[in-house]
Amino acid sequence: MENMERRIFGIGETVLDIVFKCGQPVAAVPGGSTFNAMVSLGRTLGKKFPEVDVTMITQMGRDKVSDIILGFMKENNLRTDQVESVEGVQSPVSMAMLDENNDATYEFFRDHKAPEFKAGDLDFGPGDIILFGSFFAISKATGDETRKLVRKAREAGATVYYDINFRKSHLLDLPQTIGAIEENCTLSDIVRASAEDIGYIYGSSDAQEVYEKHISKLCGTFICTRGADAIEVFSAGRRDVFEIEKVTTVSTIGAGDNFNAGTIYSLVRDGIFREQASCISPEQWGRIVPTATRFSQAVCQSMFNYVDPDFADNEL
């Protein structure tokens, strides 16, 4: 296993996030849930494990917004050969409105003329890690093709990490998408959700109750985050709880995304492959969760969606 090639693939949407505070724009940064995690992985793995390729699989227009995003990807060690740029289509833009607690609500502006997302012809291997999630993984336009890639990766022995990341704005879609959410869980080795996510989907934010009644039947390893509160990990028949230190936030955009990045970084650092993902020990989680939390907290203390370029030097 030690000499096996490791690669990270993220499947998801890329957008330009325009961030507002007190009704005024304060930043414009490339974003998207999976994308945020991949940028942080490009920055950290690029310094600590430069042999690990980080590839974003996505679709965007061919315009000024895509020029910004593609340039940013290249600057941050992300491979762009799996980015589909579509002529005549506008790349998506979002408005992120920060409230008094620096939590964000979003409005998205998408080009509905965009063609359906098509999975590329990729070969995966047992050293690969696949990250997917959010509405991109369950929507009619992108979910089926996303699962096609995930199934192919799973058949090749890759480790699959699914971030449910279900927003309140999609509650009306829940009856049509709950099947896709649960199918995505069955395809995954690790599932993460916030207490808010499971509250919207299952009507309860009690992680143990939701795990026992629903998720344990689909995936054995489940991580539930609660913002600044304790993190619960369910794995190998155990429930482990990790308290975290409170920090002052500037923006919570990307907090969960970067928890994902920190977890995946830890899988690479600690040499954890799919065979071990279902039986990670409490001691190993005791290394993984603090690392993931450092990624998340670093982002919460800035206006950016990803860890600082020097984070790997100073924090890891």
What are the defining features of this structure?
316 residues; 10-stranded mixed sheet; 4-stranded mixed sheet; globular
Describe the protein in words.
The protein is an alpha/beta fold. The chain has helices at 33-48, 64-75, 143-155, 174-186, 195-202, 207-213, 255-269, 274-277, 282-300, 311-315, and strands at 7-11, 15-21, 24-31, 53-61, 78-79, 83-86, 93-98, 104-109, 129-133, 159-163, 190-194, 222-226, 229-235, 238-242. Strand 2 and strand 3 (24-31) form a beta hairpin. Helix 1 runs parallel beside helix 7 (255-269) and helix 7 (255-269) crosses helix 9 (282-300).
Structural topology:
Layout: E1 7-11, E2 15-21, E3 24-31, H1 33-48, E4 53-61, H2 64-75, E5 78-79, E6 83-86, E7 93-98, E8 104-109, E9 129-133, H3 143-155, E10 159-163, H4 174-186, E11 190-194, H5 195-202, H6 207-213, E12 222-226, E13 229-235, E14 238-242, H7 255-269, H8 274-277, H9 282-300, H10 311-315
Parallel strand pairs: 1-4, 1-9, 2-7, 4-5, 4-6, 9-10, 10-11, 11-12
Antiparallel strand pairs: 2-3, 7-8, 12-13, 13-14
Helix pairs in contact: 1-7, 7-9
